[in-house]
Amino acid sequence: MDAIDLLLREHEMIRRMVDVLEQYIARVDSGVEQGRHELVLLVTFFREYVDLSHHEKEESILIPALVRAGMSWDSGPIEQVRKEHNLERYLTQALRHASLQAKTWSVHDRKHLVDVARSFLEFLRNHMTKEEELLFPAMRERLSAEALEDLTRRLRRFEEAREASGDAEITRRLAEELLERFAPESGT
Q1: DSSP state of 19
Q2: pTM
Q3: Fewest CB within 10 angstroms: 16, 55, 94, 164, which?
Q4: Region 62-74: what's the mean pLDDT?
Q5: DSSP label of 73
């Protein structure tokens, strides 16, 4: 499994969790009372797995490798991915604020949550597709076989460190819990 396969596997996990958030938000939008605990867990997953792991790999390992291979840091696909990661952080933070709100959600609060979540869902799906269509092919085109092997080793070392720290296990358990909670409707 090379670097591209590793990143695509992570995209698949992210897509599964996007589907869980979509189910949660559909329930909120239809007026079904939803516990905030699930939203806190979802936001935690997106922050820990997507931003602090997946994006960190892209920003600290993948993007520098592509820049060394001649891609521009501040224009084109790399600039776009970096900007989108920042926007995603903003949307994640907005969801986090909603999940931690102490008072009962008003009609306005629910609408705001649904709007932000749907923007987040659409954005994240589009972002992953863009990476798969622009950034990942650039890896095959721009990186030598040796550079791609080095990139794969670096990504694996990053993941090994997450395993050793326990972070990977925590996010795995969190994802499993959420997938199990939402499995009856999703058919997963």
Answers
A1: H
A2: 0.90
A3: 164
A4: 93
A5: S
Q: Where are the domains of the chain?
A: 3-186
Cα 151 to the center of its chain, rounded Å: 20
Residue with the larger pLDDT of the pair 90 and 102: 90
Rounded Cα distance, 89 and 150, in Å: 28
Q: What is the pLDDT of residues 29-40, one digit of tens each?
A: 998 877 788 999
- The total of other beta-carbon atoms located within 10 Å of residue 185's CB is 12
What is the share, in percent, of the chain residues with pLDDT greater than 90? 80
Cβ(50)–Cβ(171) below 8 Å: no
Q: Where are the alpha helices (DSSP H) in the chain?
A: 3-29, 36-45, 56-57, 63-68, 76-99, 107-130, 136-142, 145-165, 167-186
Q: Classify domain 3-186 at the CATH topology level.
A: Four Helix Bundle (Hemerythrin (Met), subunit A) (1.20.120)
Closest CA to 39 of 13, 20, 11, 55: 20
Please give the average per-residue pLDDT across 72-80, as a whole number.
90
Mean pLDDT of all residues belonging to the chain: 91
